[in-house]
Amino acid sequence: METDRLTWFNALPAQGAQEALRECCSAPGWAEHMSAARPYSSADDAIRRSDAIVAALTVTDLVGALASHLRIGERPDAGDDHLQAADWSRREQSGVDASDTTTRRALAEANRQYERRFGHIYLVCAAGRTGPELLAVLRGRLQNEPEIEWQVVRTELQKINALRLRRLLAGLP
Q: CB–CB of 69/123 below 8 Å?
């Protein structure tokens, strides 16, 4: 299946490839560079390229990438423009128990503190993590200096992009 999807992706017109890629990461520069670097020989090849592109993104580009990410503990709106990204986000955050109101409230408050401190949302690769784990990570990251936090955001974006590129190139929902 991956070979078929990879062939499909490599054959897309540039605009179509960029649209598909923006479901993985909303930074326009990232999608443009990823599209221009095709063809990819494998998902791993695409992920290596993605990591290199993210490593070179400016803070402005990173802010653009954060635009389509939900706050940890939030659920996507039904009218979300990036339906695939919203679905992936829901899956990635599935470890945050919707019925655990104590953790959800604590996440909401810590998210507000983080945004006041850094001026952007808290980005973390949430896949496989519980709400309490994500809350502990968030509280720890509140201690970072802003320049260190941007590097952490960059690393977390690389992890998220890798997960989403694998899904995109494997044709998984």
A: yes
Round to whole Å and give the CA distance between 21 and 74: 23
Per the prediction, the chain carries an average pLDDT of 90
- Which amino acid type is present at position 63? V
Evaluate the omega torsion of the peptide bond into residue 132 and state whether it is cis, within 30 degrees of 0.
no
Distances (CA, A) of 42 to 6, 8, 84, 120, 134: 7, 12, 21, 33, 31
Joined tokens for residue 114 = 């983080």
Question: 2-170 has which CATH code?
Answer: 1.10.3330.10
Q: Which residues contact 94 (CB under 8 A, 6 or more apart)?
A: none
| pLDDT for residue 2 | 60
Distance CA 125, CA 104 (A): 17
pLDDT at 1: 47
Is the pLDDT assigned to residue 20 strictly greater than 90? yes
Q: What are the residue ranges spanned by the domains of the chain?
A: 2-170
Tokens 């973390």, residue?
124
User: Average pLDDT, stretch 67-74?
Assistant: 83
